[in-house]
EGF-like domain-containing protein
Amino acid sequence: MASLGSLSLEQASKYGMLIFLVIFNHDGSVYLESEDRVILRTILSNTFSMQDFYQRATLEYNGVLRYYYVYPKRSSSNMRSPRAWSTSSYMPSNICASISEETGGGVCGFNSLCRHDDQGPSCHCPNGYSFIDPNDVLKGCKQDFVSQSCDKTSQETDHFHFEAIRNTDWPNSDYDHFQEVSEDWCRQECLGDFFCAVAIFKTN
């Protein structure tokens, strides 16, 4: 195994310096193990009795180690848990905010919105956009309108408008950045730019 030096586990893995396995152990814990069987990090610690509960972990299609399930092995009036599968924990806790690469379309693909709630992440398209493939929403969204013309003699700005989407960002995809400007200024600047599709405005 290559020496990690001052690199974190994530950095070492990114640069191909580390090969590891995800182990779901018989005691219910989940941990990372190196190729020489050294435990690198405990991902999930079991807090439920193996004698009283069935347990399972699943790696979902979107990369989330989702649902560290627990299910009572027997029904008892002394047991508070219902006889049904329930989620103990999962990671990352918010996949929508965990993927922060400078290239690519994120969790849900290009032009999409990733929303996270108690049920996990879900993919959506902004108004005026639709899924490229409704059967595979991870491919992203396509626009359902004709783009603004690049002919400078006719900017057609009156044919387009902005729709505000609160608490939303497309990080690491900005191609211009301004400070100490107003929200209205950002709108007008984007309308006058043929290649601008979205303006992100933040306070503080």
Summary: Residues 1-43 form one domain. The chain has a mean pLDDT of 76.
